[in-house]
Amino acid sequence: MNTVIAFIVIFGALVFFHELGHFIFAKRAGILCREFAIGFGPKVFAHKKGETVYTLRLLPLGGYVRMAGEDPEMVDLKAGHRIGALFNEQEEIVKIIVTGKDRYPDARVIEVETADLEHQLMIRGYEDGEEEIKAFPIHREAVIVEDGMESQIAPWDRQFASKTLGQRAMAIFAGPLFNFILAFVVFILIAILQGMPTNEPELGKLNADGAAKEAGLMEGDKVVSINGQGVASWNDIVTVIQKNPQAEMDFTIERDGKTLDIPVTPEVREVENQKIGVIGVHSPVEKSFFGSIAYGAKETYFWTVEIIRLLGKLVTGQFSIDMLSGPVGIYVSTDTVAKSGIMNLMKWAGVLSINLGIMNLLPLPALDGGRLLFFLVEALRGKPIDRQKEGMVHFVGFALLMLLMIVVTWNDIQRFFLQ
């Protein structure tokens, strides 16, 4: 159960911050955001605040921000349609009732001749009982009611496509950007709470069941030499210990101004088919606010480069697709990391956040990187690509990604549960 909770919290946080990036920069650009959703499928929870509906959906495998103009979501009022209309004090239409007019006894019935819900914000037609055609202005925040569901209209200047290329690109890029920011903040918190590893020749925390604790070493001991060989850094200490599994070693240390000689016998651990020595000691750490910021930037950069390097191996064939992991693999890895403590779990979340950001920036259809690629083409040719053609490319790309997800998930199931 703890693993399930950890997985939901981590995955939910990654998705939330990713979509929050899209949402904030879309709102800054003046785009109408109809829905902020975590998950896919049927709604589990919905709450409307302002002009946005915030929802939790059944399948917690992603999320989205539904922006006006991104989908064919509005009703097309054609000539001959009979609609109900509610007006404000300025005689502007604030509610257009397409179906269920009997539920609004105060609505005035209008037979539509022409309607423009994007640019002119006007309906022209005949009101019941009158023969003269009239023009009825529409309020910018009017809603359309169909089958009991209300949808706010989106004037052209509130739609995604109406914004500048830079505004649209930033609204899309902000999702992955916020994943990198989240990782940066997580690594800073780790450094503040746990401290930052240093390379000083000192002993950090000792494992309760480790050889160092059993031999009498203590946290804070400064190591002067091992078997008479001087050591100048933590890396020196690690190198000597790893080379001497199960061989008694004489540690010369300084503690409280005194020099002590303590014999320690490293235990054996197998790492990548190689036996190394370990004594159950962590590296020394230091705590500093500004140092924590530098550590957060350093870790974010390191894992970004590392993940890109692994992607390069996948592209060049040095990395098999069978080694990729989907939600099942991430869950199993989360279970393993969770057993090693909250700090390692936080670090795992930071790495996953960077991974999500990089994956979304790949120039593949249906991903944020694919959208940005279309924007680049638009910038080069001076005009946007036909929206229907772009939509078809993204649809095919999404289908292929879902197929890849199924293959990766099946591989995970076989690897972790069927072997």
UniProtKB/TrEMBL annotation:
SMART domains: PDZ. InterPro entries: PDZ, PDZ_6, PDZ_sf, Pept_M50_Zn, Peptidase_M50. Gene3D superfamilies: 2.30.42.10. The chain crosses the membrane at residues 169-193, 391-410. It is a multi-pass membrane protein. It comes from the Bacteria. Residues 187-257 form the PDZ domain. GO terms for molecular function: metallopeptidase activity. It is an enzyme of class 3 (hydrolase). Keywords: Hydrolase, Membrane, Metal-binding, Metalloprotease, Protease, Transmembrane, Transmembrane helix, Zinc. It is found in: Membrane. Belongs to the peptidase M50B family. This is Zinc metalloprotease. It comes from Bacillus badius.
